[in-house]
Amino acid sequence: MILESFTHAFDLVLTLDKDFFEILLLSMKVSCLSLLLSCLVGLPIGTFLAIKSFWGRHTVLIIFNAMMGLPPVVVGLIVYLLISRSGPFGWLGVLYTPTAMIIAQMILIIPIIVSLTAQIIEEINEEYKDLFKSLVISSYKALIACLYDARYSILTVILAGFGRAISEVGAVIIVGGNIDHLTRVMTTTIALETSKGNLSLALALGIILLLIALIINLILISLKIRAKRRMYV
Amino acid sequence: MFENKKKSKSLTPIVISNLSLLLGKTKILNKIKCKIYNESIVAVLGPNGAGKSMFLKTINGLIGIESGKINFNSREINDNIRKEIALVFQKPTLLRRSVFENMQFVLEKKNKLSNLEIMKLLQRVGLDTFKDKPARLLSGGEQQRLSLARALLINPSLLLLDEPTANLDPYSLNLIEEIILDENKKGKTIILTTHDMGQAKRLAKEILFFNKGKLLEQTNAINFFKKPKTNEAQSYINGKILL
To answer: Are A41 and A107 in contact, with CB atoms under 8 Å apart?
Structure first.
């Protein structure tokens, strides 16, 4: 069956199967958009938490750290309750749309981006702060320098966020509804096909999903090796 | 360009009065009083934990003082004064960038002329061929030389060096000492901490001797090594443990 699945996977790719590419495209679109928005929110928050001292900072960091392990189905359920017709944001009418899936994924990715960014920037800021202070460098220039020098590590964080987004199933199936041609993504298709007993197709999609994860990890590792070799991390 | 950089009033004499520093419950510096004159090379000596590095950091404004005053030619420390002071740390802090980029970082404006000046300084510290090398891949001695070159790039009036040659090879040591003497001849006031008696004898015009956060002696270098005023200084010179 595994061999059959591999053949099926190749068939899907080589024959440019329309349905398959629609699912793949939607998966990528939802994951990339949620990642982009999460970065826009998470990177500044993480940086702020890393460089600013204020009362309750540690508590906020602990909360974000704890949120990294949020169960996706719980997130899905909460988002569902919030955006369902009777929920406080029901008027938005986004339930069972890709927007709902993006919102759910953002809630899962933002804590990863915030926590890891804070950790990276805090470490680099700790290393540089005496130098910056002795050079009487402006806070803005110091911040830019920290971000620039942490670029490889931050890229790793972004890719980790993407990994979480593309492999997400629990939350997106609840808020997306797994509607054909509308909210069906790779992970939810795998879940559906498995429940239907169509294991060969499910496995084929699984193989492609694994390939995407593999490519991301390859990029991640090669970047890290390159940066480590040049002592940039 | 750098030689002609507009400078404010001279920073010397530096008058330190009743300077105290408390870290936690420990008194790191205890009512330090001294005067540092123009174009001097001052070696700060004393056993480990005497407060030498903290003394440099307080002069640099890196650490706030608990009480007392530091006056730079009758002016209290501010950002303009601090911009004329360069501190070279015992353990060089280098950015995760190339040698050249580390130098470039301290400049406010980057242009062809500044690049030329960077290359001149790198040549002076023997690092011009490493300009594209990641700074953190340099050896300890090379990192220290880069750190010194970066400090010189801002053309400071006062150069603070925290054990600039600790654990360095003879080549780096000689090169750094030559640069220190050279910069002093050009008019820079230099304060350095060291455990190397030979280095203190070779470079210093004046000695500040610290023990347990107290300044026990400020004297001419020749007199200090010939006939120190305190028993602690005598013991330190003789390599005995100070209690």
So the answer is: no
Interface predicted TM-score (ipTM) of this complex, two decimals: 0.87
Q: How far is A233 from chain B (nearest CA, A)?
A: 7
CATH code of the domain containing A111: 1.10.3720.10
Judged by a CB distance cut-off of 8 A, whether residue A132 touches chain B is no
Q: Name the 3-class secondary structure at B139.
A: coil
Architecture of domain B14-237: 3-Layer(aba) Sandwich (3.40)
**DSSP designation for B107:** -
Q: Which of B61, B82, B95 sits opposite A149 (nearest CB)?
A: B95
Reported as a single tens digit per residue, the pLDDT across A176-202 is 999 999 999 999 999 999 899 888 778
Question: Measured between alpha carbons, how far is B11 from B114 in angstroms, rounded to an integer?
Answer: 25
Could A128 and B97 be called an inter-chain contact, meaning their C-beta atoms sit closer than 8 Å?
A: no
Question: Locate tokens 């053949």: which residue?
Answer: A7
pLDDT tens digits along B212-233:
999 999 999 999 999 999 999 9
Q: Assess whether the previous peptide bond of B13 is cis (omega < 30° from 0).
A: yes
Among B91, B89, B93, B96, residue whose Cα is nearest residue B134? B96
> Does the distance separating the beta carbons of A133 and B95 come in below 8 Å?
no
Q: Which helix (H) or strand (E) holds A44?
A: helix A18-51
DSSP letters, B142-173, are HHHHHHHHHHHHT--SEEEEESTTTT--HHHH
A128/B93 touch (CB, cutoff 8 Å), yes or no: yes
Give CA–CA dist B194/B90, Å, rounded.
10
Block residue for tokens 């906020």: A60
Domain ranges, residue A152 = 2-229
Residues in chain A: 233
Domain assignments of chain B as residue spans, ordered by start: 14-237
Contact A136 B89 (CB under 8 A): no
Q: Which residues of chain B have a CB within 8 Å of the CB of A233?
A: 96
Q: What does pTM read for this prediction?
A: 0.84
Strands (E), B89-236: 158-162, 189-193, 206-211, 214-220
Name the domain count of chain A: 1
Question: What six digits make up the tokens of B81?
Answer: 């004064």
In terms of Cα–Cα distance, which of B64, B217, B88 is closest to B148? B88
